[in-house]
Amino acid sequence: MLITFLAVLTPLLALIRPLQRNVFFVLYYASMMFAAYVTESFYFQVAEFSHKAFLMFIVYHLACINTVTFIAYGADKHAAVNGSWRIPEVHLHALEFLGGWIGAYIAQKIFRHKTQKKSFRIMFWLMLVLQLAAVYIILKYLNLI
Question: Model's pTM, two decimal places?
Fold first, then answer.
């Protein structure tokens, strides 16, 4: 059920250029597959592409993408302190746009990272606005609002 849903939908996200070499997207995908496997194996199964499967996919997606975004910000802060390889900003913004802006916001506050650079902050808020606009358009298209 969810594994099939993931197998169809999630690889489509890999077509987005900033995700092609983003190791945190791989971590996100692996965590989504694990959550779907555990749910299907031990709890319940629902029909593929049903409303319930879609809602479960959304919940798993938001939990996983925010966790991975938080980890990415923590890894980037650690790299900044140690002077080692940094995570490209476009990768962080891609994770934010996919729904990880809550994890990004919390990580910015906890790690005190990416809070001073004005261009990054502008792009962060732009990603939030774009995501909210995309959700609004989808809900409008589905006649839910």
Answer: 0.76
